[in-house]
Write the structure tokens for this entry.
Amino acid sequence: MKLPAAAVKKVVLLPDHAFFVRVMPLAADTAPEAIPGQVELALEGLSPFPVAQLCYGYFHPPGAARVLVYAAYRRRFTVDDAAGWADADAVLPAFAAWLGLAPTRPQALLVTGADFLTAVGWDGRDAVPAVVATQTLAAGVSADERAAARAKVLAPLKNLPAPVELAAPAGTSSRVGDAGLRFTAGALESRLDASQLDALDVRDKEALAGRRRDRARNLYLWRTVTGCAAAIVLAGALELGLKGARLWLDSRAARVVAQAPAVKEIETKHNLATHIEELSTRRLMPIRMLEIMNEKRPRTIQFLRAATKGLYVLEVEGQTNATPDVFNYEAALRELPACEHVALGQTVDRGGVTRFTLTVTFKPQALQPVAAKS
Amino acid sequence: MKALFYSRHIREKILVIVLLAMVAVTWLGRVAGRGRTLWREWRATSTVLTTQQQWLDNRRDIEAAAAQAVGRLDPARTFSSTRLLGELSTIADQVGVRSNTSSEILGTERTNEFAVNTVQFAIRNADLPSVLTFYDEIDKRTPYLGVEQFSLTVNPGNQSLLNVMLRISSVEIAR
């Protein structure tokens, strides 16, 4: 699959000789967010042109006590040059591509470009180069002139190890992370992350801020896309899981169905066995219940209806023309040892006749069949 | 994929996100709904299976209890539903209330070895002694017959007469 154009990082590497380069010390307590302001102040002092007319950048790895600043007069680049920068991922001086080497011990590089030689030297104090020196090479330069330029450019590196010689990198590089870049030459690898590239880039700072915002928005949108994609994958996985679970559940349901006749048989057997057992031991004894209730019945009370509610409950509907007898009867029933609970239900008095309902719960032992009692 | 996405216009990016989000939300919603249904079914099935297993685990005890309960009975004295109705009619005849009765078979619960038959039997306009005699006759046939429900009402026209409604069950042992 061929990746779209955006997959290839386009880096515009400007000739080193277009820039003047300085290494400036920083106060120990300089906050990272104050560095761009300090760089601009320094450039105003160093340059005869206003900062707005400069293409500039800087390199300051976290914790470094120095900052490398470089700038070029904007008009050194043509409108056509600048037009090609718009779609570039980074626009840097060629030597800046190697700043990501960040060696921890003294090291020197001699970078050869089409029309320049640049020497970069690190003294090992931090990742900021101590020396960046450039010499322009005119077209058709002779070997002697080239050697002289080389000697001149290497002169500031005399206290450093012998320089590693390499060609200026091409204008493309590999991607690293979301917006980082990687330049390689032999065993050397320079990695620059997005925040370093923002500082190194020489384009208009407001435009760069806009690009950063776009980058952040793209990142946010991409994360949303990946989140949605993850949710879809999760839904797919859950769908498969549900299908598996459905099969499993179906097998359980089939087991329920398969077992149902046997269980029904056992259940029926149990119910009937209990029923048969109850016919012998827990018989319904309505006549005995009526006898017990009749013991305390006042002569004024007549029973009109009696119905059992389960084995031990009898509901009796009665009437009387002596209303107080209803309550006396209820109280008398409560005192009977055979009665567990007595409830007087609806009581209606009409035409001097009171009709009432009594629900009496008997104690099981009071209703034991004679044989069972013995 | 990421580079392809980055290279698209913002409107295309948002459209892709909206489409993916709609698919994700819809699909996840449906999956969640089906998951809840499945979970409820699983719980219901689990409950049924647990109950079934309890019955199956107690099978031997239940069968032993059933055999013990049935073992105490003489199969020759047990009543099928038809025989139960006949027996009740005979008792009613003996008591002298045969003409005032009605009956209905309510149902039979049956296993391979035995069954319990239930009938509803009504006696109308009977005096108290007849009712008591009828009840005593049924009581004598215990445990082959048993009264499950009893309702007695005084006749509104003649308070010396009673209406009785009985639900009676009988044991039937397969011979």
